[in-house]
Amino acid sequence: MSKIVPKPKALNCPNCGSQIELRAMGAAASVVCAYCNTTLDATNPQLTILQKFESRMKVEPVIPLGTRGTLKGSVWEAIGFQQRGINVDGTNYFWREYVLFNPYKGFRYLSEYENHWNFITSIPSRPVTGNSAVNRGTASFGGTEYHHFQTAQAYTWFVIGEFPWQVKTGEGVQSMDYVAAPKMLSAEMTQNEVTWSQGEYVTGQEIWTAFKLPGTPPAPNGIFANQPAPAVTGPGRPWLVFLALATLLFGMMIFFAANSRKEQVFRQHFTFQPAAAGEKSLVTPVFELKGGTGNVQIDLDTEMSNRWAYFAMALINEQTGDAIDFGREVSYYAGVDDGESWSEGDKHEDFIIPGVAGGRYYLRIEPETDPPAPGVSALTSSPINYRVTVTRDVPFYFRYLLGILLLFIPVLFMGRKGGNFEQTRWMESDHGTPPGWPSQAGQSDSGDEDDE
Amino acid sequence: MRPFYLLYSSLVTGGLFWSGLTGWTPASYDEVKGVPKSVRDNPGAYRSHYARSARYFGGK
Questions:
Q1: A399 contacts B19? CB cut-off 8 A
Q2: Cα-flanking dihedrals φ and ψ of residue B23, to 5°?
Q3: What is the torsion angle, in degrees rounded to the nearest 10, for the CA atoms of residue B46, residue B51, residue B52 and residue B53?
Q4: Complex ipTM, two decimals?
Q5: In what helix (H) or strand (E) does residue A316 lie, and over which residues does it extend?
Q6: Structural domain ending residue among the three candidates A205, A224, A243
Q7: Does the CB of B18 have a partner CB in chain A at under 8 Å?
Q8: Longest dimension (CA), chain A
C-alpha cells in the first residue's frame, strides 16, 4: 500500500542548510524547516524564505512526519504539523494539527486536543448559517444542523513540515466551531477568506492503529466538543432496550394470565367470638384442587374496624396429611383527628401458596385477637365476621408491573448520566449549556459570524 | 453500564419468567408432613407453627 506514495524530494533549507524533504509532490504551498523553523515557499524551486521565526517552543509530534497510515479507508502520510492555541482569560489552550497527504485524494487534517482526535476534511461549499429558536448560532451542512460551540482567536505557535497554504508562526485567525457530535464544522476567518472544514471524532486507538504508533494512546481528558456520548447513554438505545423488555414482560403477564384458570374452589363465611370459651380453631369442609401443580390463593375478608385479628392457617392435604402452614394478620383502624379522617391497615388480606399439587384439601383456621377485657370495652368482645375464599391457579399482575419499574429505574439513571455528559460538553462552550437550554448569565449566546 | 444493564435486565426478566412458570412467590410459609387425620374432627389436635406469633403494631 505504501508504494502509492512516492519517495520525498530532498532539498536544503536556505536559512540553515538542513535537509528538507518535500513529500507533497508540489501540492504544498509552504514548508517549514524542522531545524530552524523558517517558513519556505514550497511553490518556488529555490525555496525562498517566507518567514524567519526563532521559535522558543519545540513540540514533538506524536505522529512523526513521514509516517504513513491507513485511516478512513485511505493511506495518508503525515507531512505537516502545527501547534495552535487560544487564550481565554489569560490562559493558553493548545491543540495540535497534522497535515495528511494522499496524492490521489489531496489533503486531510488531524487535530488533537487533550488526547481527543478529529479527522478533518475541507469542505468546498459554505454551510448555511443562521440562528436557532433560542438565538444560538447554527450551521447546516449535508442535512445536519450544527450548533455553535465556540468562537475564538486562534494563533499558530509552532509549525514544521509542509502545508497547503502559506503557514506562518504567530498568524491568527478567528475560528468558529459548530457541533453535531460526532461531527463538527469549523470556520476559520481571515480578512480575505473564510475556510470551512468538517471534523469527525476518532479515537486515539484508531490513530494508534492507523499509524502503528508504539504503546497505547493516552486516555482523553474531559469531554470534547464533538465527542460522541457513550453508546448506552446515547439517545434512543437504552429506551429501545427498555421498551423491548417491557413489552416482553407485558407479553409474559398476558400469557400467564391467559393460561391461568382462576378457579374459585371454596368460599365460606365464619364468625369468631373471642369471648367464647373452648377451642377457637376450626376446619373447613374439604375442597378439591384440580389439575397438576399450581398456585392457590387464600383471601381473607373481614368486617372489623378498629381492631386486629391474626389467622394462623394450614392448608392440609386430606389424603397425605401434608400441610402448608402460614399466617396472616388483618388490622384496620380509622378515625377522625382534628377534623381530618384517617385510616390505616386493610380489612382484606390474601396469601398465595405456590406449587400446590392437585388433590383434596381443607383449611385449618385458628383466629386470634386481643382477649376481651371485662369492663374496658365491649367492642373487643364482639364477634369478628370473616370470609375465606380459596382460588386455584391465579395470575400475577403486580410482579410484572414491578419488573417493568425495575427495568425502568436504571434507564432513568442512564438518561440522567447522558444529560450530565451533554451538560459537561457544553459547559466548555461559549454558552455554558446544551442547545435548547437557557444560556448561563454573562455568556455570549450568539454564534453570528462577522465574515461577510 | 450497558453490560450491567443487560445482565440486570436478563435477571429481572428471566426471574419473572421462572416465577411465572413455577408460581413462586416470596411469601413465608412452612411445609409440614404428617398432620394427624384426627384434625378433621378435633382442630385442636394440631397447632400451626404460625399460631400465637401475631404482632400488633396498628392504630394511630
A1: yes
A2: 75, 20
A3: 150
A4: 0.76
A5: strand A307-317
A6: A224
A7: no
A8: 123
Scanning every residue of chain A, which has its alpha carbon at the shortest distance from the alpha carbon of B29?
A: A326
pTM score above 0.80: no
Write the DSSP symbol of residue A355: E
Name the residue facing B20 among A308, A396, A417 (closest C-beta). A396
Are A207 and A330 found together in one domain? no
The pLDDT-based confidence of B38 (bands split at 50, 70, 90) is confident
Distance CA A74, CA A417 (A): 36
- Chain A residue numbers with beta carbons less than 8 Å from the beta carbon of B6 are 241
* Residue where a domain stops, chosen among A174, A206, A224: A224
Say which of A279, A313, A354 has its CB closest to residue B48: A313
Q: How far apart are CA A82 and CA A67, in angstroms?
A: 16
Q: Which range marks the domain in which residue A160 is found?
A: 11-224
Domains contained in chain A, number: 2
Residue A435 inside a domain? The answer is: no
User: CA of A121 to nearest chain B CA: how many angstroms apart?
Assistant: 33
SS3 assignment for A116-175: EEEEEEECCCCCEEEECCCCCEEEEECCEEEEEEEEEEEEEEEEEEEECCCCCCCCEEEE
CATH of the domain at A359: 2.60.120.380
Residues of chain A neighbouring B26 (CB-CB closer than 8 A)? none
Q: DSSP secondary structure string, A264-293?
A: EEEEEEEEE-TT--S---EEPPPEEE-SSS
User: CA A348 to CA A225: how far, in whole Å?
Assistant: 59
Domain co-membership, A66 together with A197: yes
| pLDDT tens string A403-444 | 999 998 888 777 666 667 888 888 888 888 888 766 664 444
> Based on the domain organization, do A27 and A126 belong to the same domain?
yes
Q: Which three cell numbers stand for residue A211?
A: 499509524
Q: Quick one: cell of A5?
A: 506514495
At residue A3, φ and ψ (nearest 5 deg) are -65, -20
Query: B9 touching A, CB under 8 A?
Result: yes
A41 and A132 housed in the same domain: yes
Shared domain for A46 and A154, answered yes or no, is yes
State the CB neighbour count (10 A cutoff) for residue A201: 18
Based on the fold, state whether residues A201 and A342 are members of the same structural domain: no
A305 and A162 part of one domain? no
Chain B: give the shortest CA distance to residue A357, in Å.
12
CB contacts of B2 in chain A (<8 Å) are 231-232
How many residues in chain B?
Answer: 60
Rounded Cα–Cα distance for residues A36 and A14 (Å) = 10
Is A417 inside a domain boundary? no
Q: Which residue numbers in chain A have pLDDT < 70? A: 1-9, 53-57, 132-135, 231-237, 372-381, 415-419, 437-452
CA distances from A200 to A117, A275, A430, B26 (A): 8, 84, 21, 53
